[in-house]
Every structure is written in structure tokens, then in C-alpha cells.
Amino acid sequence: SQELEQSPQSLIVQEGKNLTINCTSSKTLYGLYWYKQKYGEGLIFLMMLQKGGEEKSHEKITAKLDEKKQQSSLHITASQPSHAGIYLCGAAPRGHSGGGADGLTFGKGTHLIIQP
Amino acid sequence: NAGVTQTPKFRVLKTGQSMTLLCAQDMNHEYMYWYRQDPGMGLRLIHYSVGEGTTAKGEVPDGYNVSRLKKQNFLLGLESAAPSQTSVYFCASSYPILAGGSNEQFFGPGTRLTVL
User: Fold this and answer.
1) Which structural domain, as residue segments, surrounds residue A59?
2) B110, B8 in Cβ contact below 8 A?
3) pLDDT band with cut points at 50, 70 and 90 for residue A45
4) Chain A residues with beta carbon closer than 8 angstroms to that of B107
5) What is the H or E stretch that residue A72 is in?
6) According to the model, what pLDDT value does residue A1 have?
7) Do the chains contact at B97 and A100, CB–CB below 8 Å?
8) How many domains does chain A have?
């Protein structure tokens, strides 16, 4: 089965600083999803990456999938208090061949705290 | 659109009691999922459904049953609750890429269940 390892487990960053969260897979990633979860709430979809070398950005958040499709990174530029929360990466075990029906396998999450 | 809704939001059960968690989505999604989230374990898939009348086991199905009698609803049942089922339960839905969707999973706000 596919396992996703996220690093770091927790991160404390001063407001305005940049940060990076990594997600490493034991198998090739056919679809990598990044979600954000505020404490006590549900998951909010951030971005999905499919192709090796793909990069997507939304506001101050950039996600990349490496060429070998086994590692993804999430980079936040000029962090703000609104960025605080838990960031989770998820992967579809069979990618598109399974139609996404298998659900997602998630990493354990990275807890991000932004210090003012 | 309400998106994905879950009822109840909170529940406390005694060991051996039964209950049903309800998930509803108004996005006409084919796929629906139940996950549980535990500290240090991340999100794990319990059961999922690829359409009305069909269900399948996920990673941690023991002690749970599900039903999808209507496309918009996915029910998760605990027949005899155990303290090990204390968790936060999330429902999600998605529209498959093969059918023109993005496979992005939309999550509900969660149900916090405590079994004493």
C-alpha cells in the first residue's frame, strides 16, 4: 500500500517568513492533493498535481511535484496568520486508472503555527 | 449549495450503543467516502461508495457498516460502539475524472464522536 510521509511534523514560523512542507511517497504518485485543515474543522482543497515537474500556485502558496513523481512540496511565501493550520497531502492509490474511487491515502499532516 | 453536510456535529455514546452518522451532498457527486481522523494517525478511509446502492471497504472497515440508498446520502453505522471508535469522522464526495470531474474530494465539517 502507498504511504505518504510528511515533513516536518510541526513548524513554527515568524509572520512574513517563507516556509516549505514536504510530502514523500513510497510509490509513484499519480495524483497528489494538498489540503488545509483549520483546527476543529473540515479539509479545504488547495491544489492537485498530476504530471511530473508540475507546479501550481494560488495566492502565496505554490505546490510542486518532482519529475520522478515521488515527492511534492508546498511552499508558502510571506506567511500570514491565516496560513496557520494543518496541511495534509493525499494521493490516489491507483490514480486515474482507478477513477479515484479508492479514496485518498493521506500523510499524517504538518502543523503550522505562525508567530506574530 | 450547501456542499457536504454531516449530522450530528458532536455525539457521546456509551460502549455498546449504536448510532448512525449521516452525510449529505448536493453536488450530484458519484463517489462518497467516510474517513476517520485520529491524533498521530492522519485520515484513514473506512468505507466508500462509487454509486447509489454500492459500497466497498476501505482501510479500516471493522466495526462499521454503510449504506447508500440515495445518491446524495451516505450513512455510516456503528452497531456496537467501542472506545476505540472515539474519533473525528469526515465524509467526502467527488466527481470522477473519467466522467469529466476533477476527482477533488470535498469534505464535510466532521462529526466528533466520543465513546465512553
Assistant:
1) 4-90
2) no
3) very high
4) 35, 42-44
5) strand A71-76
6) 67
7) yes
8) 1
In B1-116, DSSP assigns E strands to: 4-7, 10-13, 19-25, 31-38, 42-51, 54-57, 65-67, 73-78, 87-94, 106-107, 111-115
pLDDT value at B1 more than 80? no
Nearest residue in chain B measured CA to CA from A43: B107
Task: Tell me the nearest-neighbour CA distance from A91 into chain B, angstroms.
Answer: 11
Residue A93 grid coordinates: 492509490
User: Domain extents for chain B?
Assistant: 4-115
Dihedral sign for Cα B35, B109, A25, A104, please.
Answer: positive
| A85 touching B (Cβ < 8 Å) | no
CATH 3.20.20.450 fits B4-115, yes or no: no
Segment A85-100, tens digit of pLDDT: 999 999 876 655 544 5
Chain centroid to Cα B7, Å, comes to 11
d(CA B103, CA A4): 19
A28 assigned to some structural domain? yes
- Residue A108 belongs to some domain of the structure: no
Task: Name the strand (E) or helix (H) holding A39.
Answer: none
Q: Which of A72, A4, A11, A85 is nearest to A42 (CA)?
A: A85
Q: B12, B89, B16: which is closest to B47 by C-alpha?
A: B89
